[in-house]
Write a structure and sequence with these properties.
Number of helices: 3
Structural class: mainly alpha
Distance between the termini: 165 Å
Strand content: under 5%
Mean pLDDT: 87
Number of strands: 0
């Protein structure tokens, strides 16, 4: 007895090389899409960090201006008086400049004045008891 057998058709919709080409093309498109989205995400992150850097740079400039404003002689003197410190800048007679060997440089007002005072006190000290 004969069986009812279905005929099997061996029809190809696409040749193998065409299917391989389509799979390769889809893989490349998905890879490009992934890299594009990753680059866009990194670009947004870079822009965010650049904005943060600009904000911090502006803040640094503002703080530097505030600090420089506080370093003026008038502001320093006012701050010292608020803290109970009475100081003033030295006069030229109070400044002694030294060389690398540690000896005072000649011709300074402070050195000349010191020598005059020392000579005057020696004269008084030599007078001593009679």
């Amino acid at each position: 007895m004969r069986r009812n057998r279905k005929r099997q058709l061996h029809a190809r919709v696409l040749p193998r090389w065409a299917a391989g080409f389509i799979v390769l093309l889809v893989t490349l498109v998905l890879g490009y899409w992934f890299m594009d989205s990753k680059c866009a995400m990194l670009g947004q992150e870079i822009r965010k960090h650049e904005q943060k850097y600009a904000a911090l740079s502006d803040e640094r400039v503002r703080e530097e201006a505030r600090w420089n404003e506080k370093k003026t002689p008038e502001k320093l003197e006012q701050a010292m008086l608020q803290h109970g410190i009475a100081m003033s800048y030295p006069t030229p007679e109070q400044v002694v400049r030294m060389d690398s060997a540690g000896t005072p440089l000649a011709g300074q007002l402070s050195v000349v004045r010191y020598q005059r005072n020392r000579n005057a006190s020696e004269r008084v000290a030599k007078a001593g008891p009679r």
